[in-house]
Design goal:
It is a single chain. The protein has four helices and ten strands, in the order E-E-H-E-E-E-H-E-E-E-H-E-E-H. The relative contact order is 0.13. Helices cover 22% and strands 49% of the residues. The protein has 179 residues and is an alpha+beta fold.
Length: 179
């Protein structure tokens, strides 16, 4: 099940489903040679729903369902030490608590650092510190806690330029027609 997307190699996306259905969907595609490439989750009526995209890939991959920061960071650090890299990352808020989910894939050698969800200005300062050391954002996710925008993310070693936008509304983020 899933929606086939055109392109080379195969790519499938699932509509939002609860954790058990999402884990089964991911497992069925993993057994066919696909890895979770994108991941998002949201909360509706007190339940967490996941959506994601799988693409053809090889090697091991682990998925962590929504959990608190302490549990998530310990899980990620343990797999990082075994040669895995965080390749998908998302957050949501349930009953005022930020929850984290992600997928880690085997085969990386570059260093990575993660930030839990913090106020936007603090996150920008964190990412700029790592940018000065040769890292770029490889994942960023936003959520709102008590009316405040918080950002969480991952930086990985890189060598090209990068620009980071301030938090924007959808209208400000959307491309504008040339005048």
């Amino acid at each position: 099940q899933g929606i086939a997307l055109p392109g080379d190699g195969g790519e499938f996306i699932t509509p939002p489903v609860e954790e058990g259905g999402f884990a089964s969907w991911c497992t069925s595609y993993f057994e066919k040679g696909y890895h979770l490439a994108t991941l998002d989750m949201c909360v509706a009526r007190g339940k967490i729903y996941y959506t994601g995209t799988v693409r053809t890939a090889t090697g091991a991959q682990w998925f962590q369902p929504a959990t608190d920061w302490t549990t998530f960071s310990k899980w990620a650090q343990g797999l990082f030490a075994k040669g895995f890299r965080l390749t998908s990352f998302t957050t949501c808020v349930l009953y005022g608590q930020v929850l984290y989910s992600g997928a880690m894939t085997a085969g990386g050698t570059e260093a990575q650092y993660m930030s839990e969800a913090v106020p936007a200005a603090q996150f920008v300062a964190w990412s700029e510190k790592y940018f000065q050391q040769g890292y770029h954002l490889s994942a960023v996710n936003g959520c709102v806690v008590d009316g405040e925008v918080r950002l969480a993310g991952v930086v990985s070693q890189a060598s090209a330029a990068q620009w980071l936008s301030a938090v924007l509304t959808q209208a400000d983020f959307a491309p504008r027609p040339a005048s």
